[in-house]
């Protein structure tokens, strides 16, 4: 089995080169591209195991490229950003990014985060033995990642699906935000816990008959969240 292939999309040559060097030293295969459009062209030919993506790119920015990627695949995405505004980081995570790293950063940190995201992605991969979960009005299929709610297919991002699958597999078990970060994102030190709140809200908007009065994904005040079967 070949080593994971990492696509780096970064327009600053010095950053791209040093991140590439450290990833290669860590045993990864690396592809480099310097703008969003070139990355899009490459991704239409070959899908890597993970994308390290700068937000501020020429021709097509990181947000737009992430949005396109999420319509095509669930390849893990780590965003690189010099923006320290929480709104931008949450926006990236809502679009389906798996993690983000603030500039300036240590190249070794990138290597560690790449390894962590790949571990988490593999751990959350569907088990062929796992069967769909079926409730009165919801069906969740781990193989196809298809979610049917009241006879209609619902489109979830990768993170939304993983959160729903985790909660639904453990009905009535309460998960703290820290536990959800650990189980779904694989990291707790760098991700803002409010990310969980945002994903819970978006998940409710997609599966609840009335998101303001949820019946499936319930808040246990002061503790966390649970799935009511």
Q: Can you give me a brief rundown of this structure?
A:
Helices cover 41% and strands 21% of the residues.
Question: Which helices and strands occur, and which strands form pairs?
Answer:
Layout: E1 5-9, H1 13-25, E2 29-33, H2 36-43, E3 50-54, H3 62-72, E4 77-81, H4 86-95, E5 99-102, H5 107-123, E6 133-134, E7 138-141, E8 146-149, E9 152-154, H6 158-169, E10 175-176, H7 177-185, H8 194-207, E11 217-220, E12 224-227
Parallel strand pairs: 1-2, 1-3, 3-4, 4-5
Antiparallel strand pairs: 6-7, 7-8, 8-9, 10-12, 11-12
Question: What key phrases describe this protein's structure?
Answer:
alpha/beta; Arc Repressor Mutant, subunit A; Rossmann fold; about 230 residues; 4-stranded antiparallel sheet; elongated; 2 domains; 5-stranded parallel sheet
Describe the structure.
The protein has 229 residues and is of the alpha/beta class. The chain has eight helices and twelve strands. The strands form three sheets. The protein has a five-stranded parallel sheet, sandwiched between helices. β8 (146-149) and β9 (152-154) form a beta hairpin. The longest helix has 17 residues, at 107-123. It is elongated, with a radius of gyration of 18 Å. The model has no long low-confidence stretch (mean pLDDT 87).
């Amino acid at each position: 089995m070949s080593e994971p292939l990492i696509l780096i999309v970064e327009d600053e040559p010095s950053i791209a080169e040093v991140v590439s060097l450290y990833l290669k030293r860590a045993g990864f295969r690396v592809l480099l591209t310097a703008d969003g459009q070139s990355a899009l062209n490459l991704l239409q030919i070959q899908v890597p195991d993970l994308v390290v993506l700068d937000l501020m790119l020429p021709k097509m920015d990181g947000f737009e490229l992430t949005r396109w990627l999420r319509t095509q695949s669930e390849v893990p995405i780590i965003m690189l950003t010099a923006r320290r505004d929480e709104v931008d980081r949450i926006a990236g995570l809502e679009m389906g990014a798996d993690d983000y790293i603030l500039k300036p950063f240590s190249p070794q940190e990138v290597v560690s985060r790449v390894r962590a995201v790949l571990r988490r992605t593999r751990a959350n991969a569907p088990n062929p033995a796992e069967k769909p979960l079926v409730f009165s009005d919801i069906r969740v299929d781990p193989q196809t990642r298809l979610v049917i709610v009241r006879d209609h297919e619902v489109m979830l991002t990768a993170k939304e699906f993983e959160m729903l699958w985790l909660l639904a597999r453990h009905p009535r078990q309460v998960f703290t935000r820290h536990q959800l970060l650990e189980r779904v994102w694989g990291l707790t030190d760098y991700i803002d816990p409010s990310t969980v709140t945002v994903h819970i809200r978006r998940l409710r908007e997609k599966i609840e008959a009335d998101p303001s009065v949820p019946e499936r994904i319930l808040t246990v005040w002061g503790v966390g969240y649970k799935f009511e079967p």
